[in-house]
């Protein structure tokens, strides 16, 4: 089979238009950066070659600069939000929240607190690589997480973690023993913080990707991943819990959406006895890392952090199938696993998939409707009948009781 090419995506009719990245333009590597020499050498952290767009840099710089003005008019009625603009409180903020380490991250946090929807809107337009990790930290921020004890290197899952870490060679940087130790640190600390979840295969790929984006900041990586395990917006505790209940719910949601939106593809899958576990589970449990180019995975995770796990994953997978529907109709079960291995084929298509997702995103009511009609006896059906509605959070706490830390 030849290489895949992603279809052209129409410009969205909405006001949100994602800026196109130029993959030939990257951070300047000609000037030596002593403080980030390791990241520069391995092209991780701010040196990841995700792509650039000067308009993105200008847009974000202008927006963040607007939060440097301490005598600006009051934006909200919240005393806490307004206090963030007072110089006397800035030093205290950094002491209380050591996860925020850079001035621009502080301005980004103020942006998020004061204009949450605007913050997400900007993220969907695109993120400069130099701001990406700060954005991920802010959008998942738990102020107390950095104060938790994170010096344990041994957990009940240590044996499984060690075995999987040796297979997590997603980038040359993971040939470095010191980086392997940091990945081990991340996974064991997560297993200790969330003993009811522990460790599940696939978490190693996601943690490794986060380490790359962070510039191998292991404590910060634990904090960002912890919010995925601790939040009803991401629900990774239910994804990686024993029996993987969220995985099976999402497989049901995705297949039903394919049936409605892409009936020919759905019928073809049924006729060829193509199980969703062949391809959907690999995407969900590895955070796209198992099948996609790593730099594409970074862009996918921008989207997931903004939209949440259920809508984020679902939007991206449905968009991927939409783009490749004609080719999929020619594939049988044996061909499908290799068809979606974009990493092996060296195909970059995240930008096209995200633009397609923005054209027609999945709505919460579609998921509720699927859950009301399903005849599958799945653990989380009752929970997802309330997805996006009042009562969901309370039910989520019931279903995740004993799973979160």
UniProtKB/TrEMBL annotation:
Residues 126-308 form the Rab-GAP TBC domain. SUPFAM superfamilies: Ypt/Rab-GAP domain of gyp1p (SSF47923). One of its GO terms (molecular function) is GTPase activator activity. InterPro entries: Rab-GAP-TBC_dom, Rab-GAP_TBC_sf, Rab_GAP_TBC_domain. It comes from the Eukaryota. Pfam families: RabGAP-TBC. SMART domains: TBC. This is Rab-GAP TBC domain-containing protein. It comes from Paramecium tetraurelia.
């Amino acid at each position: 089979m030849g290489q895949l090419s992603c279809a052209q995506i129409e410009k969205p009719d909405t006001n949100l238009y994602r800026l196109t990245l130029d993959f030939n333009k990257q951070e300047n590597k000609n000037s030596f950066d002593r403080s980030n020499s390791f990241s520069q050498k391995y092209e991780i952290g701010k040196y990841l070659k995700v792509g650039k767009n000067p308009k993105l840099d200008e847009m974000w710089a202008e927006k963040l600069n607007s939060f440097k003005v301490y005598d600006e008019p009051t934006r909200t009625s919240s005393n806490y939000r307004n206090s963030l603009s007072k110089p006397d409180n800035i030093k205290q903020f950094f002491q209380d929240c050591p996860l925020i380490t850079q001035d621009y991250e502080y301005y980004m946090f103020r942006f998020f607190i004061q204009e949450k929807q605007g913050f997400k809107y900007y993220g969907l337009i695109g993120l400069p690589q130099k701001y990406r990790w700060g954005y991920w930290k802010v959008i998942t921020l738990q102020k107390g997480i950095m104060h938790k004890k994170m010096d344990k290197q041994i957990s009940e899952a240590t044996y499984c973690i060690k075995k999987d870490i040796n297979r997590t060679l997603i980038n040359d940087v993971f040939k470095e023993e010191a980086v392997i130790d940091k990945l081990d640190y991340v996974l064991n600390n997560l297993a200790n913080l969330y003993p009811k979840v522990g460790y599940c295969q696939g978490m190693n790929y996601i943690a490794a990707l986060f380490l790359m984006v962070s510039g191998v900041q292991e404590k910060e990586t634990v904090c960002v991943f912890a919010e995925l395990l601790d939040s009803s917006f991401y629900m990774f505790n239910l994804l990686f819990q024993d029996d993987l209940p969220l995985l099976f719910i999402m497989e049901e949601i995705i297949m039903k959406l394919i049936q409605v939106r892409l009936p020919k593809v759905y019928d073809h899958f049924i006729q060829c006895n193509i199980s969703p576990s062949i391809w959907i589970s690999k995407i969900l449990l590895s955070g796209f890392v198992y099948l996609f180019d790593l730099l594409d995975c970074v862009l996918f995770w921008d989207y997931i952090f903004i939209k949440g796990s259920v809508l984020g994953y679902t939007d991206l997978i449905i968009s991927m199938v939409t783009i490749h529907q004609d080719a999929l109709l020619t594939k049988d079960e044996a061909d499908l696993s290799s068809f979606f291995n974009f990493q092996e084929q060296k195909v970059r298509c995240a930008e096209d998939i995200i633009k397609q997702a923005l054209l027609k995103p999945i709505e919460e009511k579609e998921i509720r409707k699927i859950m009301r009609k399903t005849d599958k006896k799945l653990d989380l059906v009752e929970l997802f009948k309330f997805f996006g509605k009042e009562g969901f959070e309370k039910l989520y706490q019931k279903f995740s009781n004993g799973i979160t830390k």
